[in-house]
Amino acid sequence: MAENKSKRCQNFTFDEKDKLVKLMNTFKNVILNKKTDGTTNQAKNEAWVNLCTRFNSTGTTARSKESLMRVWEKMKTDAKLYKALSKSSHNGTGGGPSCVKTDIILEQVSDLMGRACKGITDVQDSDADKITEASSLPILGDETMEILIFQNENEMLSFLPVFQ
């Protein structure tokens, strides 16, 4: 059997993860770029090498570029899950305290990632009809019925009775 297996390193400490997030903030415009052409990939690789050099210059445990990339991908995945659970817990019924513990590192990672982690919020449905007015119409004698008047993008009017 070949002895090609690399030895397992220590787990990343809280301080190391915090340092990685702070360094990632410096290189985020290059590393988090969505483009994948040759020059962009080369710039990303150089940014990771620079980040690794800076990371290892101040720490006690030397980390490889690959291990830093792996831990960053894991932190991104955990941040997305953390935000989803936080949102689910916040929107749940019943009140009371949140069941998700606050994690400072994952909060920082989700802030770095921006919309990629938080999703799109407050998106309005562009196909929805708009309520232009609500009015009451007399039906028989003294009785009235409320109706809602909708207007779609083609300026077509729709009437919807409101039953109480």
TrEMBL record:
Keyword Transcription regulation part of the UniProt annotation: yes
Top-level taxon of the source organism: Eukaryota
Signal peptide interval: none
InterPro entries per record: Myb_DNA-bind_5
Keywords: Transcription, Transcription regulation
Domain Myb/SANT-like DNA-binding stretches: 8-81
Oligomeric form and interacting partners: Self-associates forming complexes of several hundred monomers.
Function: Involved in transvection phenomena (= synapsis-dependent gene expression), where the synaptic pairing of chromosomes carrying genes with which zeste interacts influences the expression of these genes. Zeste binds to DNA and stimulates transcription from a nearby promoter.
The protein's name in its UniProt record: Regulatory protein zeste
Organism in which the protein naturally occurs: Parnassius mnemosyne (clouded apollo)
Lineage, uppermost ranks: Eukaryota, Metazoa, Ecdysozoa, Arthropoda, Hexapoda
